[in-house]
Amino acid sequence: MNAPHLTAALDLASRSVPALPLRAGKVPFGNCSACRDNACGGRPNMKTPGPCACPRPCHAWAAATTDPSIITGPAWSTAWKQAAAVAYHPGGIGLTVVDLDHADAVAWARRTFPATRTVPTTRGEHWIYRGAMPSANAVRPGVDIKSTMVYARWLGPGTGTMTTLPDVARALVVKEPAPVRPASRSGTVPVPVGGGECPHRMPAYLERGIAMAEQRITQATNGVHAAVYRVFLAVLSAHGRCGCLTDTHMARLFAAAQAKGESLRHCTDAWTNALTRLGL
Question: DSSP states of 237-273 as a string?
């Protein structure tokens, strides 16, 4: 048994940090016979759990645990004998790791990000911030974001004071919305009956509505996909028939949803479904 790695995992667990063993190549173990060799349908190299029928997720980031009985139990006994490293789930404790793979990436981070706790890696550094966010690889050359639904290698506590996750990090995973133009219909959707000036064209009125919609998405704590749909439906109910909405407004709503972990496809589907329901 690899006593140092097991000891490190137990130490992390004692501090409420979910930990798991990694084999050579920074790849997690399949911790039951049904999931070994990716038999349960996870993504390559066992880095993402598949639809396995085990009592609980038994590999990839979902296996990270703070339960010492699991860490030292029979399911992981072989894993610790072969373990090459220990990993943890940063998003599980409300953290984000900015993984900088080389010196150029580190230099960019020093120009771009506020100082925080840093941990040296083989080729670069991990910068660790308080606050969780969606994870993404290759957000720019040599930069990965590791937070929710991924694991990061445990390389020690690092140095420096951990600071709050900056907006510049969150912006790295927000993709540009697809060139969909469902809301820009001023030429085909009539203004309200009576021909008067549309009240939604008052900048303050429309801006307040979009800002409130962004806030409702940002503050959603569960059922994010349903919450996004409801917000899109409400916005289109209020502003979709008068031609006030623009691509810029839609992009703001999509960006808020993507910052909560929604994919671009889900955003587009939710928007289209709301349009269909309203007969737009």
Answer: HHHTTTT---HHHHHHHHHHHHHTT--HHHHHHHHHH
